Amino acid sequence: MDLSIIIVNYNTNKLIKQTLNSIYKYNHNIDYEVIVVDNNSSDDSVYMIKSEFFQVILIENNANLGFSKANNIGIKRASGKYILLLNSDTVIERDTLEIMYKYMEGNENVGASGCKVILPNGNLDKACKRSFPTPKNALYNALKLDRLYPENKSFGEYDLTYLDEDKTHEVDCLVGAFMMVRREAIEEVGLLDEDFFMYGEDIDWCYRIKKAGWKVIYYPETKIIHHKGGSIKKKRKKIIYEFHRSMYIFYEKHYKNKYSIITRYIVYIGVFTKMLLTFSINAFKNN
């Protein structure tokens, strides 16, 4: 098997149908399988997949286990030489799978690669090529200095805004909405860290892959459309909490002993303050 496509689904009936259609409506010159791991959806997702996409290997969880754990379940079931994490709210192009597969085949030192990811409004999903978050670049990003000075390497480091989005670059991390990973890299660094319920697991995985000596590559010779946040729009409080919790987990895991204790607590206070502010803004919008 050349490629195993892992899709985690949670109440994205219409979106995942669109995703699966974008895969199956084309003939692909590679041997691939699609594994959908459903996190106990309460909509008609499971019924729709069973009735309309008989080719799909469907795994039904009896609870919402989160993005990392559900993907790991799919990866354990997969038999492909490469593993593609693909969100249930994405649409691929005709030749996306072949282009990315051929790139990985021709570059044996690449552990993970990602294509160009476009939002429905036509803008780049900046998360598809970025640096590892650090106290400094996270601060610049929070102050939106990257928007004011996108060409500045210091201010634009967080989302690598100074890099040409139409050229291939070695980057720190990709987005879990589309990430093709070499099986040998997974065998070396392990599966996704299940401490991350959602958010941050892709950054952590790329961190471990790069630390092991593999390259992480942004390869914009093909693209996908990402209807961002398709499965989370109704659980805003949970999302805010998990997003900020992932920052804490990542810092504790990789940076705890890298920075001074003063910097460490400034970061934690900053994350907590930002979370409270986001909760407040969200509550105000809902009133």
Percent helix:
40-55%
The radius of gyration over CA amounts to 19 Å
Oligomer: single chain
Which architecture name of the largest domain does CATH use? Alpha-Beta Complex
Which descriptors apply to this entry?
globular; 41% helix; Spore Coat Polysaccharide Biosynthesis Protein SpsA, Chain A; alpha/beta; 9 strands
What can be said about this structure in brief?
The chain is α/β, with parallel strands linked by helices and 287 residues long.
What does it look like?
By secondary structure, the chain is of the alpha/beta class. It contains 10 helices and 9 strands. The protein has helices at 13-24, 45-52, 67-77, 96-106, 135-142, 145-148, 183-189, 201-211, 236-255, 261-286; strands spanning 3-9, 32-38, 57-60, 82-86, 90-92, 110-118, 169-170, 178-182, 215-226. The radius of gyration is 19 Å and the shape is globular.
